């Protein structure tokens, strides 16, 4: 057998650049290395977009599979209910509060065009206060059910973290998760754990609580107002 023919059968003389038809990938690893891949791997290149997380072969760096978005593991552990079933009929004696909640939260989500026509800006969230067991969480879940929204519940004390920046990152991850599961209602229980009065303090723990609260305010209405966030 001709050695040249044998080499061609083994793929030695195959021009990979001409076969890939312009499909290539640039990877950024967890160690901040930048790697160019002329051959993508086992994933369809058309299904990849900038910023996607992927699993690669440790030696060749060929892409083996796509990974879900990176959220803080503590956010995943929090209560996420995509199909709440609560109804306003489950709540007794709070007709006035339910009506106010519907006007502030439900109507801006279900009849957005009415607010735009009247030139009214809907409120940026509502504050529910009262003793434990008075139906605050139940009313929020009923609103999510009426608007067919995902219900994401956070606990205020869990946002107070030991290390600098952890609480703010948790808030950012929660809002990013809510945007991907839009429409979504975020219910922050015991928000007084971070919603304290601003004051100058030399204690690192107090400063971290204020950083977390500032990040929450920034997500609600930062430099650029987002009408999707109510």
TrEMBL record:
GO terms for biological process: proteolysis. Its main location: cytoplasm. It is found in: Cytoplasm. SUPFAM superfamilies: P-loop containing nucleoside triphosphate hydrolases (SSF52540). SMART domains: AAA. Residues 122-220 form the AAA+ ATPase domain. The keyword Protease applies. One of its GO terms (molecular function) is ATP binding. The keyword Oxidoreductase does not apply. GO terms for cellular component: cytoplasm; proteasome complex. Keywords: ATP-binding, Cytoplasm, Hydrolase, Nucleotide-binding, Protease, Proteasome. Belongs to the AAA ATPase family. PANTHER family: 26S PROTEASOME REGULATORY SUBUNIT. This is 26S protease regulatory subunit 6a-like protein. The lineage of its organism: Eukaryota, Viridiplantae, Streptophyta, Embryophyta, Tracheophyta.
């Amino acid at each position: 057998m001709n050695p040249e023919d044998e080499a061609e059968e083994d793929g030695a003389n195959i021009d990979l650049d001409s076969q890939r038809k312009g499909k290539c990938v640039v990877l950024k690893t967890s160690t901040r290395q930048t790697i160019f891949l002329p051959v993508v791997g086992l994933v369809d290149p058309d299904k990849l977009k900038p910023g996607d997380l992927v699993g690669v072969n440790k030696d060749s760096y060929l892409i083996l599979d796509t990974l879900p978005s990176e959220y803080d593991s503590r956010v995943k552990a929090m209560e996420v209910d995509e199909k709440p079933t609560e109804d306003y009929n489950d709540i007794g004696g709070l007709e006035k509060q339910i009506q106010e909640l519907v006007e502030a939260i439900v109507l801006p989500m279900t009849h957005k065009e009415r607010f735009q026509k009247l030139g009214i800006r809907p409120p940026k969230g509502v504050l529910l206060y009262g003793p434990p067991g008075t139906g605050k969480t139940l009313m929020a879940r009923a609103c999510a059910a009426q608007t067919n929204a995902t219900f994401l519940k956070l606990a205020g004390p869990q946002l107070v973290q030991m290390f600098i920046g952890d609480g703010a990152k948790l808030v950012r991850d929660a809002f990013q998760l809510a945007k991907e599961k839009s429409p979504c209602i975020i219910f922050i229980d015991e928000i007084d754990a971070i919603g304290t009065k601003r004051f100058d303090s030399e204690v690192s723990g107090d400063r971290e609580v204020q950083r977390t609260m500032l990040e929450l305010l920034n997500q609600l209405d930062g430099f650029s107002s987002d009408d999707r966030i109510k």
